[in-house]
Design brief:
With 162 residues, the chain is α/β, with parallel strands linked by helices. It has a single domain (2-139), classed as P-loop containing nucleotide triphosphate hydrolases (Rossmann fold, 3-Layer(aba) Sandwich), CATH 3.40.50. It is 43% helix and 12% strand. The chain has helices at 2-6, 19-28, 41-53, 63-66, 86-94, 116-144; strands at residues 12-15, 32-34, 58-61, 77-80, 106-109. Strands 2-3-1-4-5 form a five-stranded parallel beta sheet, with helices on both faces. Strand 2 (32-34), helix 3 (41-53) and strand 3 form a beta-alpha-beta unit. The protein is elongated.
Length: 162
């Protein structure tokens, strides 16, 4: 299902959680390249740069490997096998959904019937994160409205200044 969901993407990422998933997806997706934890640092860097340049059509990797600090606005399609980590979910989606992205980012979440608790947990965490950020903005706006000392008094200069 995950391979089929991203099969027609011009460029995309297939996020997974397990090595077996990664190996199978790489075999099933035409033009896919696997970025694995067992790759050397040089190979990881080479694959990430190649994907960023558009030389790799579909990158298959784990969020723990490639979901932080990368700008992939050139792509807007992904598949995702969820875990309980909201941080991984958020970071994986934000690789593509960034300033400069000109297309809607399409994410196909791949789960099993038994995965509904994981999805519910991610939804709960997303709602908590939204509430936290809304409260942060409210607090910042309130703090910005605090007035300091008034400097409306006329200046008085000492007599020796003339």
């Amino acid at each position: 299902m995950a391979a089929e969901a991203i099969s027609d993407a011009a460029v995309g990422v297939s996020w997974c959680q397990l090595n077996d998933e990664s190996h199978l997806l790489t075999k099933l997706i035409d033009g896919a390249v696997e970025l694995a934890g067992s790759d050397s640092a040089e190979d990881k860097e080479s694959k990430l740069l190649a994907f960023g340049r558009g030389d790799i059509r579909v990158l298959v990797t784990k969020p723990s490997i490639g979901a932080w600090g990368l700008n992939w606005q050139h792509a807007h399609r992904m598949t995702y096998f969820p875990s309980h980590s909201y941080e991984q979910w958020y970071q994986a989606v934000r690789r593509m959904w960034r300033f400069g992205q000109v297309f809607p980012v399409e994410v196909d979440v791949i789960s099993t019937p038994g995965g509904h608790e994981v999805l519910a947990n991610l939804q709960r965490k997303a709602e908590q994160a939204d509430a936290m950020f809304a409260a942060l903005v409210d607090n910042m706006n309130e703090a910005a409205g605090i007035t300091g000392p008034s400097y409306d008094n006329a200046m008085e200069a000492p007599l020796w200044i003339s």
